[in-house]
Design a protein that fits this description.
The protein has 13 helices and no strands. By secondary structure, the protein is an all-alpha fold. It folds into 2 domains: 9-28 and 152-245, Orthogonal Bundle (Endonuclease Iii, domain 2); 36-146, Hypothetical protein, domain 2 (Endonuclease III, domain 1, Orthogonal Bundle).
Amino acid sequence: MPISYDAPAAAKTQRNYELLQQFYPPLTLEKPRRSPMRELISTVLSHRTTHADEELAYDRMLAAFGDWAGVLAAPTAALAHAIRTTRWPDTQAPRIQEILRRIRAERGAFELDFLHDWPTEKGMAWLNDMPGIGLKTASLVLLFNFHKPVLPVDTHVHRIAQRVGLIGPKASADKAHQVLLEQLPKDALTLLNFHKHNYWHGQKICLFAKPDCARCPLKGFCNYYREHFGPATPEALAATPTHWEAAWGALPH
């Protein structure tokens, strides 16, 4: 059912989910793409860094030091050099070592499987207490690896939520975690699809500098579209693709 530009934010969030669920391939709660420890450390490495450079940093780190014990024991400067393709290697290297130190001290091993049995709120609090780990990183680990009902809000999800009007124009990413989670079902599969579809949308269509509004299925209720082009005409809506076309390129990881 179409909704208006002035619809309540919760209604826009629901419509965003419905349309992008049709536009992009729906996901299932399959085996996690990475181990919990890799998800955690890779997400730390990914801050303001491309996926390719994050992967390169991770591979160089493990090639240089072998395992988590080796990463923890490494000279911090050597670790920073190994992860030099990230945005802030000199900051991230000591953070990674402190995270590893605390995990081993508190759990006796470099593993996070215990989070599966913990309540969501307890797991979020424990992860957020680690240096350099915020709501996005904690949510990614809990949702992707343990199918907890949390919502990661990265730069793409945040940008789309502001442009469309799912959150206020000045709402921070941390505030968006709370607001969007309140507007969506507390269901891990729904939250996974909402996150990934908006992530893909921000990577492929709702770009930071030059959004491809002509191809966007959200234009009928997107504040950004109305501000820049006026209300979408019936012709513009009719010309909007309804599905992601493989010919446009592969979807991001």
